[in-house]
Design goal:
The chain is α/β, with parallel strands linked by helices and 393 residues long. Helix content is 33%, strand content 17%. The radius of gyration is 21 Å and the shape is globular. The protein binds the ligand O=P(O)(O)OC[C@H]1O[C@H](O[C@H]2O[C@H](CO)[C@@H](O)[C@H](O)[C@H]2O)[C@H](O)[C@@H](O)[C@@H]1O. GO terms for molecular function: trehalose-phosphatase activity.
């Protein structure tokens, strides 16, 4: 592990960004071009040219199981050379070493705000594992009242959006704050501010109204897939119903199969169910989340593109005076971290209590540190505004 600190400038070299094969997806299941294969959709972002994946008899051989095992960090790891459990002191040491590369955003707060001075900050937040702790039952991933008020406060000072893997309706129901923008299904369902130039540029972007009747720009680049995802969801529900602990969710533009509560000996069966579905739908592909397999449309769209879309919608693109900050904990958040890092544009902050490979720039240990970070931003901004007012008087 490289121990050199990288916190001298907001964005440095990308530490070997994650790619599909490293996420455990066998190359034979990765999308590749073959003209004329798959339906032709009209949307600007649909790039369905994938051939059916080769038949794999055993999901063990294609890397899915390895990816499933590593998809949420174990609390303790075995030290193979000594055949003993790594002590918590060892884990803490490993975490401290990792912090040199991905410094705590709390400890680096002064540095962050000195870079943010005279810039307009835009905040992008993931939900699960970031605003709410990871729990066994996805329906019980409740955000605390103090986190809700921290997010509400932050939205008073900075444009703030939630970008979640859940459906937009579900994440709105969980967060319940009208002052935010919401993107569901990993950014495939965005309700952003009205911006006429944006809707003209993007197909599938229409004027719409939100839950409270407020007008916004609704962007759904995978609209054509709604019926297909619903069908896939129903099949998954049927095919996994005998697997104890399995849970399937329909997020409208993607479907999730949770195996957190499934005995590990049954994980191959879960993987096989998902694998069998993907064989029938070459227009869809797999991504791995935290103890969850997700089936998504094969379109060129992700949380990173959603961040770009929202920045543009907010009228903040093409400006050096903008500092986007994305806070997330999941592999799907890496797309957003990469967009900010590669464009030298802002800060990705990974929420993790264990060392992880990431394209984020800073880290926070858990949702309670996320809350502290958001509150610190609010305190700093308030003070800055008070000082400006005092100077004007
Ligand atoms: O992008 P996110 O907002 O982080 O959503 C990602 C997934 O979050 C949920 O699952 C995860 O959190 C659950 C509750 O803590 C946990 O039980 C599960 O194991 C995690 O994978 C959600 O249920 C998924 O559909 C989202 O894709």
């Amino acid at each position: 592990m490289e121990l050199k600190s990288n916190h001298a400038s907001p964005v440095l070299t990308d530490p070997s960004p994650l790619n599909k094969s490293r996420l455990g997806i066998h190359p034979s299941l990765m999308p590749f071009s073959q003209a004329g294969v798959g339906p032709s959709f009209s949307g600007k972002y649909v790039t369905v040219t994938r051939k059916k994946p080769a038949k794999l008899d055993d999901v063990r051989s294609n890397g899915w199981l390895d990816a499933m095992k590593s998809s949420s960090p174990p609390r303790k790891k075995l030290n193979k050379s000594f055949n003993s459990e790594v002590t918590s002191d060892d884990s803490e040491f490993g975490y401290c070493c990792w912090l040199l590369k991905y410094p705590s955003a709390l400890n680096s707060f002064e540095q962050i705000i000195s870079y943010a001075k005279n810039k307009k900050i835009a905040i992008f937040l993931d939900y699960d594992g970031t605003l709410s702790p990871i729990v066994d039952d996805p329906d019980r991933a409740i955000m605390s009242d103090c986190m809700r008020s921290a997010v509400k406060d932050v939205a008073k000072y900075f444009p703030t959006a939630i970008i979640s893997g859940r459906s937009r309706d579900k994440v709105y129901e969980l967060v319940g704050l009208t002052e935010l923008y919401y993107a569901g299904s990993h950014g495939m369902d965005i309700m952003g501010p009205v911006n006429h130039s944006v809707s003209a540029d993007h197909l599938n972007c229409i004027k719409s109204t939100d839950h409270l009747g407020k007008e916004g720009n609704l962007f759904q680049p995978a609209r054509e897939f709604i019926t297909m995802i619903d069908k896939v969801f129903k099949t998954l529900l049927e095919n996994t119903k005998s697997i104890k602990g399995a849970k399937v969710e329909n997020h409208k533009f993607c479907a999730s199969v949770h195996y957190r509560n499934v005995e590990e000996k049954n994980w191959p069966t879960i993987a096989q169910c998902v694998h069998d579905i993907l064989k029938d739908y070459p227009q869809l592909h797999l991504t791995h989340g935290r103890k969850v397999l997700e089936i998504r449309p094969e379109i060129d769209w992700n949380k990173g593109k959603a961040v770009d879309f929202l920045i543009e919608s907010l009228g903040l693109s093409n400006s050096d005076g903008v500092l986007p900050i994305f806070i997330g904990d999941d592999r799907t958040d890496e797309d957003a971290f990469k967009v900010l890092r590669e464009g030298n544009r802002g800060y990705g902050i990974l929420v993790s209590s264990v060392p992880k490979e990431t394209s984020a720039f800073y880290s926070l240990r858990d949702p309670s540190e996320v809350k502290e970070f958001l509150s610190s931003l609010v305190r700093w901004k308030k003070l800055e505004e008070e000082e400006e007012e005092a100077e004007d008087e």
